[in-house]
Every structure is written in structure tokens, then in C-alpha cells.
TrEMBL record:
A GO cellular-component term linked to this record: membrane
InterPro entries reported for this sequence: Phos_transporter
Pfam families xrefs: PHO4
PANTHER family, per the entry: PHOSPHATE TRANSPORTER
Transmembrane segments: 26-46, 53-72, 169-189, 256-276
The UniProt record lists the keyword S-adenosyl-L-methionine: no
Compartments where found: Membrane
GO BP annotations listed: phosphate ion transmembrane transport
Main location: membrane
Coiled coil residues, start to end: none
Keyword Nucleotidyltransferase: no
Name recorded for this polypeptide: Putative phosphate transporter
Length: 285
């Protein structure tokens, strides 16, 4: 019997369908339409008129769904016409199955698995863009937050008034996060993508979409959370869904230790830098 908490999961719907490849190809445009429409309406102040904002959001969602459907049909159309004839599972494969609350869902194999992974490969590109948008909306804001406090003093708006941050300052914040990703981000990418648990396109999509939803919701509430911490939790979640033994505990311990260390180290360095700059400025002025 399926887990009742996962009845409306699109991945469960695809994996449980008689023809998983066809189900994935049919579900992808619908998921894109719902996602793009919801994100467009919630994240972008398209217009003060709610009806017009809804029309624009639906238009963007429809356009995104159409584009994704065309890409999937063009790239995977030759596989979609093949019948669903999954090969029988060997005894060894059955014994080696991980035990988790998703273990009762029989996944696709053969050509069907290739189609599902192909569809969710495109879906994961979109979920990565969604995660990047949420990451920029929250983490760039975290970096610009102290600068906003300093600008409020220069602007004389320390009484709780809204601080206006110039667009070029925000652009520099975005440039900084992109530069850091280009120079050192590959190390974090390798840790999250390979060293926590085994990720497939379906699992990666689920983790990215879940993490991006949490980060975007927190940004809307003005909460400065860590997008990286959220994504690590989401990746661990898709691992735990297949069984506790599928998550590499040593990597998780290292990540948690790094989280615990960064708070006191950041505080100590902040005190040190403040003392140095105070002494330096007092001697100059």
C-alpha cells in the first residue's frame, strides 16, 4: 500500500503509472505551468491590479509549459512511442533494495527509466533556476543587510524608516555571489551532489524544488536563512526517504560540524575586525 502522505507526489504518480515514461512526459508541462504561474504571481509585483497580475502569471505559466512540452517531445519522442516492457528484476537486485518508506513504490526500468530521467533532467534545470532565484533573493540580501544598516546611518534614516538600496549596490552583491560560485563553488557542489547520498534527476528535482520553496517563502517573510543549509536538509530528506542507511553519516557529521564552527568563528572575527578598524580610524582621524 502506498504511503498516504505521498498520494499527491508527482514523482510517486510517475513511478506508479503503468507507463512511467508517458506519465512523466504528461506531468512535466502541468508541473511547470503550476510552478511558473505560482512563482510569477507570488514573487513578482507584476501589477497592482490582481486580475491583470493573474493573467500575466497564467500567460508565463502557459508559455513555460508549452516550451517544456516541445523540448520533451523533440528530444524524447522516439522513446515515448516504445511500449512499456520493463525487464524482470533479478533476485540479487531485489535483495539489495534499500528499505525506506518509498520502498513499496516499484520504479521504472529500461527504456521507461531513461524517459523518466530524461524528462526530470529538463525539470531539474528549471528547479535549479528556481533555486538560484531563491538563493539570490535570500543570500544576497543577507550580504547586503549590514551594508543597508551602514547606508541608513549615512542617509540619516535610523529611525526605522525604509532604507533605499541603490540598484548598483544590489548588482555588486549579485556579482559577488556569482564570483564566489565560479571560484570555490565547485567544492560545495561536489559535496552536496555526490557525498551526501546518491542523487538521480528525480531526487535532485525533489530536493531543489523543496529547498527553493522554503527559501523563497522565508524571503517573503523577511527571514535571513541559509539556502545551502536548506538544500543540504532537502538532499538528506530524499536520502532518508529511501532508507536511513542511504545517507553518508560521515559527510553529514562534517557538514554539521562546519555549521557549528562558523557561528563562533564569525563572531570572533567580527569582534577582531571591529577592534582593528576602530583603532585604525581613530589614529587616522
Amino acid at each position: 500500500m502506498s504511503n498516504p502522505l505521498l498520494i499527491f507526489s508527482p514523482i510517486q504518480f510517475v513511478y506508479s503509472a503503468p507507463n512511467p515514461g508517458q506519465a512523466a512526459a504528461a506531468a512535466a508541462p502541468i508541473a511547470v505551468f503550476v510552478g511558473v504561474t505560482g512563482i510569477s504571481f507570488a514573487a513578482f509585483p507584476l501589477n497592482k491590479s490582481i486580475p491583470l497580475a493573474l493573467v500575466l502569471a497564467f500567460a508565463l505559466g502557459t508559455g513555460g509549459a508549452f516550451i517544456v512540452d516541445r523540448i520533451i517531445r523533440n528530444q524524447l519522442g522516439h522513446l515515448l512511442v516504445e511500449p512499456a516492457t520493463p525487464p524482470a528484476e533479478s533476485k540479487e537486485e531485489s535483495v539489495n533494495k534499500k528499505q525506506g518508506f518509498l520502498s513499496d513504490i516499484e520504479g521504472p526500468t529500461g527504456t521507461q527509466l531513461e524517459i523518466v530521467y530524461g524528462v526530470f533532467g529538463y525539470m531539474q534545470v528549471m528547479s535549479a533556476c528556481f533555486m538560484s532565484f531563491a538563493h539570490g533573493g535570500n543570500d544576497v540580501s543577507n550580504a547586503i543587510g549590514p551594508l543597508a544598516g551602514a547606508l541608513s546611518i549615512l542617509q540619516g534614516t535610523t529611525g526605522g524608516a525604509e532604507v533605499v538600496i541603490p540598484a548598483d549596490v544590489l548588482a555588486w552583491g549579485g556579482f559577488g555571489i556569482v564570483a564566489g560560485l565560479m571560484m570555490w563553488g565547485y567544492r560545495v557542489i561536489a559535496t552536496i551532489g555526490k557525498k551526501i547520498t546518491e542523487l538521480t534527476p528525480t531526487r535532485g528535482f525533489a530536493a531543489e524544488f523543496a529547498a527553493a520553496s522554503v527559501v523563497l517563502f522565508a524571503s517573503n517573510l523577511g527571514l535571513p536563512i541559509s539556502a545551502t543549509h536548506t538544500l543540504v536538509g532537502a538532499v538528506m530528506g530524499v536520502g532518508f526517504a529511501r532508507g536511513l542507511n542511504t545517507v553518508k553519516t560521515e559527510t553529514v557529521k562534517e557538514i554539521c560540524a562546519s555549521w557549528a564552527v562558523t557561528i563562533p568563528v564569525g563572531a570572533i572575527l567580527s569582534v577582531l575586525y571591529t577592534w582593528i578598524f576602530t583603532k585604525l580610524l581613530s589614529s587616522i582621524l
